[in-house]
């Protein structure tokens, strides 16, 4: 099957899924939901189905591209003499070996950086005590965001020391399913952070958009906490309330000082972590926000120079598409 046919088949299957989901959703909505809630639920189901369609199409395209390259390689070899074929094969083996050696070196350097960060890196905690407030799909979404956090942290020359606290139940089960999770250079604790850091409570700072304290700089002695909650706006203010009940410090990222958000200042966990990682590297909040926060989540900046910075970065990094699908923790 050629590329067009494969992609078309995947799209057709996904379209059928959308139709089925829409029909099923419409028939299962109970009278207990308001019309607005019904519309939101239907919209969410359609969105999920559309995402599945894109995923299926991308998978089909990748498979088709792999098959195309394989055929091109076989055709190339068939047109060569035996001697030429041996030389080409040897050259290919050498290139493959070089790539593998390079990856091995990069992997080792990454491990060394992350190990060093456990001693002198900025402590960042992802609070996983909200799993009982989320559906299985929302937990899965959070697990994916945590995976992005770990991958992004390993790319920095000065990574942070990542912690997962309150990690148990369904959350722990889904994390364990991630390939290589048991080898992650990260600290994980089944206990709540308030117990993990009971002797350092004065250094705990919960990052929440509801805080009245603006975070001007990052203190290496502080332990910054990010709430792991894909809340769908159902649990507004929950992280602030939790911090107040535990009598720990709170702060919010200084987003409003540099740009206007198109909606509430709600970011995904991996966006919050990446902003902090960018700041640790550049010590520049504005640059960190503009590099991480998707343009769809923000209005034009007040100052023209901010817009010029954005346009410059878009020209330099056109291939980078930061599309986060689900709203998450309050920052």
TrEMBL record:
Composition bias (Acidic residues) maps to 303-318
Keywords annotated in UniProt:
Methyltransferase, S-adenosyl-L-methionine, Transferase
Catalytic activity reported: guanosine(9) in tRNA + S-adenosyl-L-methionine = N(1)-methylguanosine(9) in tRNA + S-adenosyl-L-homocysteine + H(+)
EC number of this enzyme: 2.1.1.221
What GO MF annotations does this protein's record show? tRNA (guanosine(9)-N1)-methyltransferase activity; tRNA binding
Key word Cytoplasm present in the record?
A: no
Name the Gene Ontology biological process terms: tRNA N1-guanine methylation
Record-annotated SAM-dependent MTase TRM10-type domain positions: 110-300
User: Which InterPro entries does this UniProt record tie to the protein?
Assistant: MT_TRM10-typ, MT_TRM10-typ_sf, tRNA_m1G_MeTrfase_euk
One GO CC term on file: nucleus
Q: Under which main EC class is this enzyme filed?
A: transferase
Coiled coil spans: none
Region annotated Disordered sits at 52-75, 303-331
Membrane-spanning intervals of the chain = none
Indicate what this protein is called per its UniProt record: tRNA (guanine(9)-N(1))-methyltransferase
**Origin organism of this chain?**
Apium graveolens (Celery)
